[in-house]
Design a protein that fits this description.
about 190 residues; alpha/beta; five-stranded mixed sheet; 8 helices; 7 strands; about 15% strand; disordered C terminus; binds uracil
């Protein structure tokens, strides 16, 4: 919640950023935490990572409105650097502090499948720390009893050296396509 002080991040961020999407979405996509843009706008995946996600969804002929989009951690963690706010990875304790909020979103939406973007989301959904290389691109059973597919975080693609970026993007598309293909009526929420 906006005034949450279960961990120190809440006191620093502009606002909590809850998930968005249809209440009975079949697929829930879970990122790490809101970034700078998300913190200011109060919506998940509206900055550069969200734009990359939109590019991937467009290539897969998928609509963002059909997905429930959220994050493992609901506040933006950063360190100020001049006029900028530099993203900081949340600690395991901070991720756990947000666990009940993510759990409630999952219970409310009741998605059929979960897509974990990056190591923090994978940790939150699988209940253990993971190496991305070892888990990505495969289905796992998560702590909420649902199938979880792990894929790169879009920020990892944005940070990758130019020469690798396109091949990582293609890999990412393949993983996202697995999630879209898994459910019964792939064009409906
Ligand atoms: N990165 C995330 O993990 N989530 C967002 O909402 C935006 C960027």
């Amino acid at each position: 919640c906006v005034a949450c002080r279960a961990c120190p991040i809440g006191a620093q961020a502009t606002q909590a950023v809850p998930g968005v999407g249809p209440l009975r979405a079949q697929r829930m996509l879970v990122g790490e935490q809101p970034g700078d843009h998300e913190d200011l706008q109060g919506k998940p995946f509206v900055g550069p990572a969200g734009q990359l996600l939109d590019r991937a969804l467009a290539q897969l002929a998928w609509r963002r409105e059909y997905l429930y989009l959220t994050n493992a951690v609901k506040h933006f963690k950063f360190v100020p650097r001049g006029r900028h706010r530099l993203h900081q990875k949340p600690t395991v304790a901070e991720m756990h502090a947000c666990g009940p909020f993510l759990g409630r979103e999952i219970a409310l939406v009741q998605p059929h499948t979960l897509l974990a973007l990056g190591a923090t989301a994978a940790h939150a959904l699988l209940g253990r720390a993971v190496k991305m290389e070892a888990v990505r691109g495969r289905w796992h059973t998560g702590v909420h009893g649902l199938p979880v597919l792990v894929a790169w975080h879009p920020a990892a693609l944005l940070r990758a050296p130019e020469a690798q970026r396109e091949s990582l993007f293609q890999e990412w598309l393949t993983d996202l396509a697995c999630v879209l293909a898994r459910t019964r009526s792939p064009r409906k929420p």
